[in-house]
User: Fold this.
Amino acid sequence: MFWFQRPKWYENAVIYQIYPWSFQDSNGDGIGDLEGIISRLDYFRGSPHSLGVDALWISPVYPSPMKDFGYDVTDYCDIDPRFGTLEIFDKLVAEAHKRGLKIIMDLVVNHTSREHPWFQEARMSKTNPKRDWYVWKDPLPGGLPPNNWLAVSGGSAWTPDPSTGQCYLHHFLPHQPDLNWRNDEVRKEFKKIIDFWLKRGVDGFRVDAVAHTVEDKRFRDDPVNTHFVKGVDLPYDEYLHMYDENQPEVIGVINLICESSKKYRDIFIVTESYVDLTQLIKIYDGCTYRNHTPFNFNLFELFKKPWSAEIYRAFINAFDKLVGPKRVPTYVLGNHDHRRVLTRFGETRTRLLALMLLTLRGTVFVYYGEEIGMKNVEIPKHKMKDGFATLIENPSILRDPERTPMQWSDDLNAGFSEVEPWLPVSEDYAKVNVKTERANPESMFYLYKMLLYYRNASEALRYGEYVPRNAKSSDVFFYSRKTSKEEWFVMLNFSNEIVNEELVVEGRKLQIACSTYMNTPLSSKENTVTLRPYEGVLFTSS
Ligand code: GLC
Assistant:
């Protein structure tokens, strides 16, 4: 945070991700759409019952053959008819803005659909003017791929194109040829696309797969990952991605996107790179624009480690410090590419993580349904839709289970659609849904609403400094959020046992604001509070 400037809306904001296929169907085709989202805007902001989030990030709604559910675009300046029209999109922006809600578009910069007219032209001949918009190489003798680069979705990152015999690069499905960001015309085209959406009033972009936009100029083979365990790790991890991902030039792409949005007010850019802390800080440092922040996906890495306060404490302390007071960290518990957090940890621990997420310094992201405790849904093979599924026999990469219809009520199809939805609704929908949880003050929904209420009402919780604190027990992750005027404290008991902690900090007695156990009162005796298994508590101080 820049203390001498007024904070921007996106600094320490809460951004809610909508996966449009699954949010709300308005026209009875079993697929969510823009009118459906419009009909649900009060859920987010503008009414006393609203959650109180700042912005919606909407996964791609561009025309697409949907091999990767919208992440394969055939026209960057239109809306897929399944979702609506440009006019309906304009209405969505206007209705959201009326409620003080911002709209963030997903910008798919690394690749187009194979059916995009640019690629259709490019593949026609080696001399076609669009040829260099994509990345082409001759196969090696014997028809082998030009190098050992792998596609994230499985197999080689190169596919031979019969029309010229050359191979094109695709970091994802063969249906998603990579654009060549070293080509000036591609860069110019994206400036125009950015302008097109900003003129329509969008408030920012989530930039898809930016880490893959530029590759090594010499196309060197990636080194073998000596730690790779076949059958356990993702096939993509067989090599270390030294030459095909996160090249230094990626910063140039990020800067170009930020630069293109400079003439509009307060546009937020968040970019997708799966990198460790050191590389993340390099991205922060490399980007010269204040309106940009990279996603921090490192909690997904922590999720794979043993569940312990020490691991979370060490990571968050280090990350917050490295990011520093002038920049803003980001945190996510889930998105459309990862197992839902509740499926990983069960309800009690997920509540602790929710309390952590919404009380940390940073711009945080909530994946649709997290706020009601939706979980992954097992999808029978014949109902699977994810394009990645057809290529890989590795179930951990399949993403349908975290993309199932939003559970609005205990009505037919959870209130998502009047007809059978594109993916099955979770069996638990009669209990886990917005309507039922709204009426239950113990619910996950209530916890989110309460935490968002506190975060919106308190300067310290939203903008304050993050201060690591020492708890008595090493199982408790303890921190505070502080401005010169107020301080809030957070205790997270990572153990599944009862733990006693001091209620007096620097002579100030802490007062309980909210617990992940909700209304079941905490017991506190004089200066001691008893935290129950996996309990998270937010305190004010007098
Ligand atoms: C990003 C998206 C993912 C998509 C991929 C290719 O990682 O989050 O869903 O499959 O890019 O566009």
Remarks:
- The chain has a mean pLDDT of 95.
